[in-house]
Amino acid sequence: MLLGSQLRRLREARGITRDEAGYVIRASEARISRMELGQTSFKTRDVEDLLTLYGITDEAQRGAFVDLARDANLAGWWHRYSDVLPNWAATYVGLEGAASLVRAYEVQFVHGLLQTEAYAHAVISRGMKGASAADIDRHVALRMERQKILLSENTPTLRIVLDEAVLHRACGGSDVMRGQLQHLIELSESSNVLLRIMPFSFGGHAGESGAFTILSFLEYDLLDVVYVEQLTSALYLDRREDVARYARAMEELQQESLRPDDSRTLLRELLHRL
């Protein structure tokens, strides 16, 4: 995405159309569009030809682009799970791992980055009825692998709003929920995790359309991406007007939900009831 965004900026600065850029690398306008959106792999030769077309002659600058193209083509760790991870979901895992800020509203389950292994196993087993134990274990392992970003040097900031319904929906039984609630309490005390609960008592709110996630990145070239998961696919929204509407909804959810301290109090109350 970063490489594609930078190539788009160079093309637009020279007033070159996608059609013209595609002609130079023997590709269609649609392929140039996919390259600029980060939706396809890059050939080093194509990147070099485009840089020449865009007037980039400095060897150091060209070398940086070529290095970025090579890095972009490296398989991420999640490719090891390609047997259980559909392409539409693999895109999200890659974006999540590169994000500096993850904002999410969840109405059905605890967010995947905050789930315990036992809770994840219960949720995945319920959603994959009839699947083999091995397949379920692979999905759980993938989810646990995702959580390693919380222990990395570049750990993202998480701003998560959970609907109170999530906490009352028993997944896996009392012991599993007890462990999950305790885990949420502990995570909510981390400096990079801002966890809020949207209480039943509030009534209607900005998240009535369902769960969504907004991913933000440090690189100034990259726009925020909104992720909305469906049963067999997902939506990735990056148009400014779409992102702005979801960002406003997230701001309202954060303002209307319980403060972090009050959210922890509610979590402790529910834990003691189990």
List the helices and strands and how they pair.
Elements: H1 2-13, H2 18-24, H3 29-36, H4 44-53, H5 59-72, H6 87-98, E1 101-106, H7 117-127, H8 133-146, E2 157-163, H9 164-168, H10 174-188, E3 193-198, E4 212-216, E5 225-229, E6 234-237, H11 240-256, H12 260-273
Parallel strand pairs: 1-2, 2-3
Antiparallel strand pairs: 1-4, 4-5, 5-6
Helix pairs in contact: 2-3, 4-5, 7-8, 10-12
Explain what the structure shows.
The chain contains twelve helices and six strands. It has 274 residues and is an alpha/beta fold. It folds into two domains: 2-72, lambda repressor-like DNA-binding domains (434 Repressor (Amino-terminal Domain), Orthogonal Bundle), CATH 1.10.260; 77-273, Endonuclease, Chain A, CATH 3.30.870. The chain has a six-stranded mixed beta sheet with strand order 3-2-1-4-5-6, with helices on both faces. The radius of gyration is 21 Å and the shape is elongated. The chain starts with a helix and ends with a helix.
